[in-house]
Amino acid sequence: MNNMRNKANNFSIRLVVARTLFCIQVIGLALCSPYSLADVLPPVIFNAPLSVCPGDIVGLQGENFGDAPVVTLMGNGRDSTSLNKLEVMNTFGTGWVSFKIPATATGALTVQVSNGAATSAPIVLNGARAYHLDALQIVPRGPFRLFGRNLLLPGFTPVVTVDGLPAVVDTRASNEHMLMVTAPRGVRAGGKAAISVDNGNGTGPALLDREIEVAAGRGDPFALGVGWGAAFSAIAAKVVLAASDARLASKVVCNGLVDDTPAIQAAIDLVAAGGGVLQLPPGTCRLAGSLKLKSRVVLQGAGKNRTVIRYEANYPLWGRGLDLAGVRNLTLINTRGRIESPLLQNSTRVFFQKLKFVLNGGIQMFLTNNNNFVILDTDFIQPKNPDDSGPYTLGGSGGLVFFGNTTTFANGSPTFARVHDAYIAHNRFTRDARDNQNSTGVIHSLAMDFAHRIAITNNTFDVLGGPIVNKVRNDGETLLTEGGGGKRTENLGTVVSATSTTLSDPGNKIDVAPFEGGAFPENYGVAVVGGKGAGQSRRVTAYSQGTLTVDKPWDVVPDTSSRYATFVWGLEKSLIKGNTLNQNPRGIWLYQTAIREVDIVGNTINEGGGIFLRSAQILKRRLFVPIVGVRIANNSITNTTKQWRSYISVMFVRTDEQDFGIGTIGVEVRNNTLQANSPNLTMPQQEPGRAEGFINRMHAEGPTQALSKNQTRLLGTIFQNNKCFNCEIGVIVRDGAKGTVQDGNAVIAAPR
Length: 752
Prior knowledge:
752 residues, mainly beta, Immunoglobulin-like, 20-stranded parallel beta barrel, 2 helices, disordered N terminus
């Protein structure tokens, strides 16, 4: 075993003092500015880790740290009455410092940075962070899940309040990233409520960045597990029997021969008049037409395997603009091949429960732009088909709970693009490759382009007829977010002027509504990537005449030296945790898209690639996508059958020479285990570093390969306490990676 420790690499600095002028110049960073020794600017911290534990190496990025920054822990995590100087592991320029938190620290971990003449504002490293709920609406005494960071820490009890009233937290069903909460009885329905969480360690409460709608209601008659399920209480109490209700001129027979479409539709219309449950009989229902779903109607079968709807026409179930509607306890089977599948769009408080969809080559289901949407215990089956059609798209849906489902598909991708405020958990996604190893179509097991505020936890991704062995196709990611393919969202430029909350570049026309419908995405972002203020990122809230307005003031106002990039965040404020991935060519890929505040923790990948983060610069396409605030921790990756490589790769890819900016900042790679092939595979078509092990480097593509490599493209990546079995090279740190820290990593060499 070989322990590796590298406290400082790629450090380059020049200090010039001339009477009263003080100037620091850093190669690769535009951080040089003259100022008076008597009036040194205080350090300003732009980026810090999302979660920190005692014993962790921590990196901070910002400005004005000086050439010998001092980091202090306030009160050793116990109080704020004393300051404790910490061991500095690594510095780079005047805007990066890394240090180690004592293993004995407890409570609030709050630090400050001093440049010798001034001190930064304190920054909390293990305070609660509230990101999102599993719904966009709550009810008094109703359940909700709260997602974020540092929510439940050992030895402390969290407190959640709704409009100042204490909620009940079930700590037994909660963890660091999720709290199970019951809303307080006294919260007022009919308005919106502020939600806060305090993890109890002395760091204080954190406020959810938006208020949540509160509705009246009590109960959960269909066991949906969300507060707004209470709104179905009155509906569930009124059941209409489709086979026998006297008010129906034609009864539903479901004998497999008669077209039941007219009778079922008439029954839906009857129930819609007052709201209720339409109960279909057991048997086989034949649909020669389409059923139009209605608000305040739940279409219910006698059981997933007892009521079977065999459909022959487009859109067997069709609904738009619904409120309070559901389908449960039945199976739908396509009998006509290439036709449109069930569709549900632009609706709210809707659910699918205990269903089976056998699509048989039909066009994928469009279940898009729905808010407060629950899909439970449902099976989706889409066999191989000539159109390469996948099973479904849930694009643009919010308040989505996708729980306990199975998806078996041969083509396309289960798609969660632009999903937000979502919980995707305890599902099984199975790629059917039994006769489709060499598909010409694009296949991913879960596509999540431009998603934000989502939690993807405890799912299983596997392959029928696996492993996938097609090494010719540039394809096969299990979990993927990518920057939009042919429809890009990015732009870039140089700042002409800025204020505390704006950035202006009048000569650059920015498309702030890149998706259909002309809407301004909530997760539209801007980042300063070079020059003054580099490392700051914000959400864009308005755009007019070349001026972007941001969601909160700049810590340091950009100037004409500042270079910026705009984009829709490819993944933001999200969690990928506890998933098991088997036998796909590629594992978890955050690929050529802007990423911010993402945890990839506790996942297991077996015989199916690894974890890949790729930031990029393509100036001719006006593309620069940064990655900030990503933690990759406690994952296990095993590839031993010589099909695919084991890797955790953090990479910046450039296609041109200009040093436009920093691509990744402070990515943390901790406590992961890799089991590599012996001997290691190179496999150039699987691009993340083209090696096995932990990788941190810039990669030049096209005509730029021979150009300057002394650029700062990846800043302050931390590799701590990782293990690599059979890796010929454990950690690869190369061109463009500056301020990298390696500590406590262990490599067990491959036998020779």
